[in-house]
Design goal:
- The complex is a heterodimer of chains A (about 170) and B (about 120).
- Chain A has about 170 residues and is α+β, with helices and mostly antiparallel strands.
- Chain A has 4 helices and 5 strands; from the N terminus they run H-E-H-H-E-E-E-E-H.
- The termini of chain A are far apart.
- About 10% of the residues of chain A have low confidence.
- In chain B, helix 3 crosses helix 4.
- The chains are: A alpha+beta (about 170), B mainly alpha (about 120).
- The interface between A and B is large, with 56 and 49 residues.
């Protein structure tokens, strides 16, 4: 039996740095917050509303994924590859006090071709639900709408006092 | 702020500012750094296991046969879906891949910095 094409792709992506080399790919990834046309940042607002231990964990997951550039960071209970209608999304997850907190993310390797200066781990939005209960469909619908808007505009939260958005959105 | 939580790109600056603001709270900083160390350690374990599986060209179906599990269960396990794997499952997994864990249990150092993780990973494969 031979490894699947997907396995070969992932092995190639890890490069020749050895299997114990976490950051084997060198291309820089950055974390960005998606910004809506109304100038809101749903993922940032969600994180700020989370209990502090959850905010600590979700932020730590995002930083860890950024530092071990995709596809190096392995999927797990904390970094999940989504399927079906949410295919193309990843999510950072944390359980706390019977609630599952989820931040929906896009790994945007095309970002540099659309005006950003690094590949972007873009935090789109977030939601919480009781553990082992279905997520309300409206949450997914909203995430899909936000992603569509993000991919069409690459609109992200700008740094306070930092450089202006070169695309002047 | 610790350097490895900071980005240098325009794209990442707003997140950096968000994180800097959070890290200004000492209790957040302590919790964040502890969790970051743990997340990175767990990820490294999973990454080494998966990288060796790929290097050794062991398909998931073969892994399932060696572990006497259903292929779907192995796929879920390697995708990180479902419940956290038990220690027994992890032992079965590394055995099926031809690896071994070297687990040493000892007391934690009296003085620990913010990046301390009780799980230390040193892969020699």
């Amino acid at each position: 039996m031979s490894p699947s094409k997907k396995d070969k792709r992932r092995a190639k992506a890890r490069g020749a740095g050895g299997v114990n080399s976490v950051s084997s790919t060198t291309t820089k990834w950055s974390v960005a917050f998606y910004r809506t046309a109304k100038d809101t940042a749903p993922a940032r607002e969600f994180l700020l509303d989370c209990p502090q231990p959850v905010r600590e964990m979700l932020t730590a997951i995002v930083v860890a994924v950024r530092d071990a550039p995709p596809p190096s960071f392995p999927p797990s209970n904390m970094w999940h590859v989504m399927h079906d209608e949410m295919k193309g999304f990843y999510e950072a997850r944390d359980e706390h006090d019977g609630q599952l907190y989820r931040v929906f993310c896009v790994l945007d390797s095309q970002a540099p071709e659309h005006g950003l200066d690094a590949k972007a781990l873009t935090l789109i939005c977030g939601a919480a639900k009781p553990v082992r209960s279905p997520m309300d469909k409206s949450v997914y619908d909203e995430a899909l709408t936000y992603r569509e808007d993000y991919l069409a505009t690459r609109r992200i939260v700008l740094p306070i006092g930092g450089p202006k958005d070169p695309r002047k959105t | 702020m610790a350097t490895d939580t900071k980005d240098t790109t325009f794209t990442g600056q707003a997140f950096d500012q968000f994180l800097e603001g959070q890290l200004a709270d000492p209790s957040f900083k302590a919790g964040f750094e502890k969790k970051l160390a743990k997340v990175k350690s767990i990820a490294e374990v999973l990454q080494v296991i998966e990288a060796v599986r790929e290097q050794e060209n062991i398909p998931k179906a073969e892994l399932a046969r060696r572990m006497e599990r259903k292929p779907e269960a192995i796929s879920r396990l390697l995708r990180g879906e479902g419940a956290n794997p038990t220690l027994e499952t992890l032992i079965d997994l590394i055995d099926a891949i031809g690896l071994e864990f070297d687990i040493r249990i000892r007391r934690q150092p009296a003085k620990r910095n913010g990046r301390y993780s009780p799980l230390k990973v040193k892969a020699t494969v």
